[in-house]
Structures are given as structure tokens and as C-alpha cells.
Amino acid sequence: LFGLTPAEALQAITIEAARALQLDSTLGSLQSGKRADLVCWDCREPLELLYGIGTAPNAAVVKDGRLVSGQLCPAAHG
């Protein structure tokens, strides 16, 4: 829709969003010293996220470094 590659779109909703909110020192990327909040998606590549708009392909959610839903190693695709 906006001419971004899947990788650029993921960057826009992670580190760039944190930077826009001036939170990039603690959020937006996986780095030592930053909060461990993340969502693991059950897909093989970022482009698959576009196929299910309106659905939640979440395999797991981690908040403050703790698993709060799902499982980190879902069953492998067939």
C-alpha cells in the first residue's frame, strides 16, 4: 500500500516507531539492556503477515522477558 518492502514495514513498526516516540533507548529492537517485549509470529517470512490482515498469527508473546501467551517453538510447518 505504501510502497514498503516487508522488511521496511517491520522496521517502521519496531525501531522507527520507538524512535518517533523517543523510546528507542529502551524499546524497538532486540539488544542487551532493552526491554524484552516481543511477538513471535507463526510464518516463514514477513510477506506472510500481509495474507492474514485482520487475523493474529501470533505464536507467542513475551512481555518483560517472560512468556505470557503461546509457545516459543510452535510445531513446524508441514
Give the structure's gist in a few sentences.
This protein is an alpha+beta fold.
Question: How are the secondary structure elements laid out?
Answer:
Blueprint: H1 6-13, H2 15-20, E1 38-41, H3 48-51, E2 58-63, E3 66-70
Antiparallel strand pairs: 1-2, 2-3
Strand order of the largest sheet: 1-2-3
How would you sum up the major sheet?
3 strands, antiparallel
Per the principal axes of the C-alpha atoms, what is the gross shape? flat
Tell me what portion of residues adopts beta-strand conformation. Answer: 15-25%
- What Rg, in angstroms, do the CA atoms define? 14 Å
What is the assembly state of the chains in this entry? Answer: single chain
Walk me through this protein's architecture.
This protein is 23% helix and 19% strand. Strands 1-2-3 form a three-stranded antiparallel sheet, with no helix packed on it. With 78 residues, the protein is α+β, with helices and mostly antiparallel strands. The model has no long low-confidence stretch (mean pLDDT 81). The chain contains three helices and three strands. A hairpin with a 2-residue loop joins strand 2 (58-63) and strand 3. It is flat and about 35 Å long. The chain starts with 5 loop residues before the first helix and ends in an 8-residue tail after the last strand. It has helices at 6-13, 15-20, 48-51, and strands at residues 38-41, 58-63, 66-70.
